[in-house]
Specification:
Layout: H1 19-28, H2 39-53, H3 81-92, H4 112-119, H5 122-130, H6 150-156, H7 160-166, H8 183-189, H9 193-200, H10 220-227, H11 230-238, H12 253-260, H13 263-266
Length: 267
């Protein structure tokens, strides 16, 4: 969740980093968009500004005199920090089978490029790209039901050669799933350090740094800690990952390491 950078201090409303913010921009700020600019590009530019200003962790954020344990917007008392952390742990631990890198991930009925990327089948990916009509990485038909692309599946499964093949197709695009997870988040989540390092490098050309957040404020370092991937954590820190960042639930890397049960990452 983010605040609209065009509204400034006029409001403390938060918006979903994807559709919510776009709808708000179209309804309240359409007149501020240059008529010659593309709407999608404008949405992306404003969203990037919102990212730079930070994720709003709770509705009381930024309100003068607000206490961290202030009542929720509906008047109900907030659960204690430990209960909030446990609730988040339960949701974070439920990794669906149809997620890049998950053991036993199923892609039945999905685009063959997703299956090839999951399996590290570069030959099939090249053949699909060479077809007369080919496939577009972020076309609706080329994504899984959560909006993940073949690049996400290749990265989450640790197939560097496939990532190197597909990454150029994502240059200049908003290369993320609907929840804001990029191929780099999937590589971090599953400890594929070589893939992550390549995508963070200038050679990949994606322009995504180590502090890119999902729509709920989760960072790559949090996901790497959750998986207990010490080498991946070291690589992210070497690329400037913020050790102090917190997501929308107020969880930091220590919470994620603890939720994953990884003492080494906690240390």
């Amino acid at each position: 969740w983010v605040r609209c950078p065009l509204c400034g201090d006029a409001t403390n409303r938060r918006f979903h980093r994807g559709d919510g913010l776009e709808q708000h921009l179209d309804q309240r700020h359409a007149s501020e968009r240059d008529a010659a600019s593309d709407a999608a590009a404008w949405h992306g530019e404003v969203a990037a500004r919102a990212d730079a200003e930070g994720i709003a962790p709770r509705r009381s954020a930024g309100r003068a005199g607000a206490h961290p344990e202030a009542e929720a917007a509906d008047g109900a008392a907030r659960p204690p920090p430990r209960e909030r952390a446990m609730s988040f742990a339960q949701s974070a631990g439920a990794l669906a089978l149809e997620e890049p890198g998950a053991v036993g991930a199923s892609l039945e009925g999905r685009h063959p490029a997703l299956v090839a990327a999951r399996d590290g089948d570069c030959a099939s990916l090249r053949a699909l790209l060479a077809e007369s009509r080919g496939f577009r990485l972020y076309d609706e038909a080329s994504l899984d039901r959560h909006g993940a692309s073949a690049l996400d599946w290749a990265a989450g499964s640790g197939h560097l050669a496939c990532v190197e093949l597909l990454a150029p197709l994502a240059v200049g695009l908003n290369a993320c799933r609907r929840d804001g997870r990029t191929a780099l988040h999937w590589a971090a989540r599953h400890g594929h350090t070589a893939v992550l390092t390549h995508l963070l490098s200038g050679a990949a050309g994606l322009g995504i740094d180590a502090n890119r957040r999902t729509t709920n404020g989760t960072t790559m370092l949090m996901l790497a800690c959750y998986g207990g991937h010490a080498e991946t954590c070291d690589a992210l820190l070497a690329h400037g990952a913020n050790l102090e960042a917190r997501n929308a639930w107020g969880c930091d890397v220590g919470h994620f390491a603890a939720m994953g049960g990884h003492v080494a990452a906690c240390v």
